[in-house]
Queue: 2 jobs
Job 1
Amino acid sequence: MIFAIAGNQNCGKTTLFNQLTGSNQRVGNFPGVTIEQKTGEIPGRKDITIVDLPGIYSLSPYTSEEIITRDFLIKQKPDGIINILDATNIERNLYLTLQLLELQVPMVLALNMMDEVQANNGSIDINQLKEALGVPVVPITAVKNHGLAELVEQAVETARLRKKPERIDFCSGAVHRAIHAIAHLVEDHALRQGLPTRFTATKLVEGDELILKSLSLDENETDMIDHAVKEMETELSTDREAALADMRYQFIEDICKKCVVKPKESKEYRRSVSLDHILTHKILAFPAFLGIMFTVFWLTFGVIGNRLSELMEIGLNSLSSGLDRALSAYGLNPVVHSLIIDGIFTGVGAVLMFVPLIVVLFFFLSLLEDTGYMARVAYVMDKPLRKLGLSGRSFVPMLIGFGCTVPAIMAARTLASERDKKLTILLTPFMSCSAKIPIYAMFTAAFFPKHQAFVMISLYMLGIVFGIISGLILRKTLFKGAPVPFVMELPNYRFPSVKTVLLLMWDKAKDFIQRAFTIIFFATVIIWFLQSFNIRLNHVADGTESMLALIGKLISGIFYPLGFSDWRISTALITGFTAKEAVISTLAVLTGASIAELGVTLQTFFTPLSAFCFLVFTLLYTPCAAAIATVKRELGSIKGTVFVILYQTGIAWMAAFVIYRIGLLLV
């Protein structure tokens, strides 16, 4: 059996999915965390598959993740739907429920967060609600695992008996006549397409172009549908979508009067309102955001993370020295010895020493996400982003971009407008991803030891500034037009979940370590090989005679105006295209410096000014190969993908050039 979990954004779908399947999918206290469907099995029940679908508010799709959800429900035809609702806000959640009922798929309602309802003196008459909607209703608290066994049992029983919803007709008057007239007209067309008749008729009343196109109606039938809709609009003095919304909400209001005792204002809500007086204040909000982020970066790069990285460096140096002595004592072939110590261990170790920084940074970011603050940041950023032709919703992908550009680009699917989606994808790579942290940390420690945190923060801010400048340019040229209206539910502030915070930290650390032992490992071996042999495959003692030196010298002239033209630096930037962490591992291999010596060695290649220009270039130039592949998939265009590569690299070169030339004048 296949069950789909469907519901509004931020109502607990992924939490329920994790509890049922034992998975560790990411959850967050802000809307739009799930952007792709996830699949899992209930432990001990291999005959049951659970699918976690992206959150939606309606079966009228506007964004790509809404289309994913609707297409799955209509085309994949699951055996049952688990419709999860936020019981503290049941009126809004029931709007989607009424549409799901029309699909005529066996369905169970899961009333989530019932503990909060009861804690605030609210109640829901489960039996009366079940009778009114014609489907089983189960109260649950997903985060505490309450009621889930009963939910599974009820869902399996409903699907096994193929119990379809008993009630799908909850309209009256002009809307009733329009829906039923169209239902009789298109019934045979709907059956041929495998669509429920009532659902099809309702969507045609709404003006759903995707459904209309799929039915292949003739001109006469289309005219009759238009006539029925216009009659309804004339009688009700409103448009088609408003007429259906009014009908649904009137039905929901009647149900809630009979079944629901609204909870009193919760302490979480009162606390949220009090905090929002400051954190979303029109004057104080932005300084508060900058202050919070400054504190996060200062603690990460200036206090906690830096100390942990130093301890990691000491441990890796000790391990490297011990292994070096052991291999020398064993009498291993010098070339293989060089591969292991100067290649693999130096390259991979130069990246691994920054794992503590990644873990600490994402510890603080996950705290901000889980409390619900990140949703406020999107709201606060709506006004400035509109000057770039985007809405506040675009800030969510950009925010994710500080972790990794790949999921950030995928998160742009949540945007309703194709224009907004493409513009967001182009701007997101300007947000500095976590893979660049090893580069920043190594260079700032070597060249700006007294101002390391400040330089780090300036780089992140510089990425945002260049994103803003690019947005202004693109808005006036390739992406003219206005952004779509911004609507986002602000969740209550909640205390962070220890499990969620630890899970995000582990995911980021695991991803970083996996990259170190896969992409970085292979890149390091290739770099060592190209640096150790010439074009005749003879081992060279001097790296300047190697194949890699030949390649690096061909492009080194491009970077001469930026203050760094050594072939080793040019080569490191090329390998950074595979993964940004590879820049540091490549420099370690090419310079022959140990992890402890690399910072000092870099001082022979750079001045503080050219080092900062190098950091600016690595901040802004083309994202890694995985991110570019994601851009290609999301844009569906090779031309657009090439534009991203050339556009970002061009801006990176110009920015580093201008900063270097201005710096020379000031020095």
Job 2
Amino acid sequence: MKSLSLGFSIAILGTSLSVAQNVNDTVSLSELLVTAPVKVEVALTPMDVTVVSSEQIEKSTESSLLPILQNHVPGLFVSERGMEGYGVSGGSAGTVNIRGVGSGNKVLFMIDGMPQWAGMFGHSNADTYVANGVERVEVVKGPSSILYGSNAMAGSVNIITKRQRQDGFTGKARAMFGSYYTSKFNLMTGFKKDKFSAVVAGQLDRSNNNRPGSDFWLANEYIQLQYSASSHWNVGTNVDMTQSTANNPGTIQDPLENMWTNIFRGTAQLYANNHYDKVHGGVQAYINWGKHKLDDGNTPGTPEKNYLFNLTDYNMGFALFETINPWIDNDLSVGLDFQHWGGHIWNTPKENVYDPETDGAFNPSEAWHHENEVAGYLIMQQGFLHNILSLNAGVRLQHNSQYGNIWVPQAGFIIRPVQQSEIKFSFSKGFRSPNIRELYLYRPANSDLKPEYMLNYELSYRQTVCEGKLNYGAALYFIDGKDMIQTQMIDGSPMNVNTGKFKNKGFELDATWHFHSKWQLYAGYAYLHTDNKNVLYAPKNKLDISLAFSPDNFEFNLENSNIWSLNNGNPDSTVSYSLFNFRAAYTYPYKVPVTFFVKLDNIFNKKYEVVYGCPMPGITVMGGVELKF
């Protein structure tokens, strides 16, 4: 249940409906109705956007969003180390790269517009991005910093939660069981009466995982309340909480014992939206908080550590935003953002555990830190010739309590030469503020660090033909990254400094073809060239193909994912692999429809490693049943 980066208020899409949506699935306008807080309509910006629909999410039968995004968004790749769960302590799992940029939390995840990175270490929490209760996901490939500031350097992922639109009660329940004693349960129900609506959802996942010592457990709860105060205003609140425990056995080369992470994360927001003929916008207040406890583990045959690491963190703020239509075909968006983020770390002793390295002494290693950021932005788009041509330009000024000011410009244009055709060009700047660990914690820390930043140049084309049955697109990009934070030896000691550079360039292609009423074919390809040979989890070539067949009450889907030249941390070579997955489902059309399904992943039992030293599972089987009411 979640939300995105270049928020959408599709209500004023009237003049843009002739523009083909940059999506992998045909989505009608009614399905894109948005009632969550939004800043600027993505359809009116020159950015390259991919929308993953609720239909794609539901048909995948996945409980985590990240595998779904990887299969449906060209240029996006996620690192994995096992069948279930990502964790946050070691293992390099759950890193999301867009166009080769992402490690160090350079892709911003949001739930209904709320930033989802931890306030102390600045990282995302991949296990909290669950699929239950998600209406769609909007992925901006390229900097979104003009709207969202830090951490949207490489792009943004807005997870938009479901809204209850029909009167009365509706819902669904699903249970799944499969390989490695894996079980998954989720439930979602909604209610609407008059001006009030509510959605409640819950999810529970458990698995022994494909490697001994990698057991995983997760629970997620979500509630959303909304009230339409008038035809022009609606107010609402939502709360999303996740608890998880992930065990990590280390790598084959460097195994570990007693390494585990226990996480509680919560996020909540209050919002009010307005919509008038010439003005629409809103106000949003939010908080994202977490409590982590973990054991860093020990090498087999050595004593275990005599302490546990503890962390509490927070990321809170508010946003004010309005879009004004002062004259025909003009949109002027203005906004003000404030963020306060930080946290507390400390160690607690384990009873009856002796550490010979410290002669049993316990180091509390306690610290508190926080940062403040305030920003304002302005974006204008002007249409010409009945919106055949639209020009877009904007700027953001952000002030940080540690490094001062940073300017973020963006400019571009959209050309619609014929109906259902669109050409976009954009220039944009993205940045990432140094996190508290890089600034203040542990030996390489440097309190004088400046933000990392990159300049992005992008040209995209999208076309819909054959009465909407065929949708295809292409994108070219060039990225110039500077001031990357790296650790170097300064006067004989390691120190974090702004010294790294990189240049990425590439292209992406995708097409969705409904060539028959019961058949659909999708293909997405991404090519990446980077001058940074040390970048991890960013394949040079990525190709995803899926074929869907839906006769009567049956559904069959065959997926093929191909990765070439992936640096997975192996010092000797890159890796390539090809995976085939299959899903079959049958829906019994009763008063309460019942769907029975089975999912087979890696059906040819391919041996591969996304993270070096962490073998991925061979063929896995999951089966289950779903009720809709």
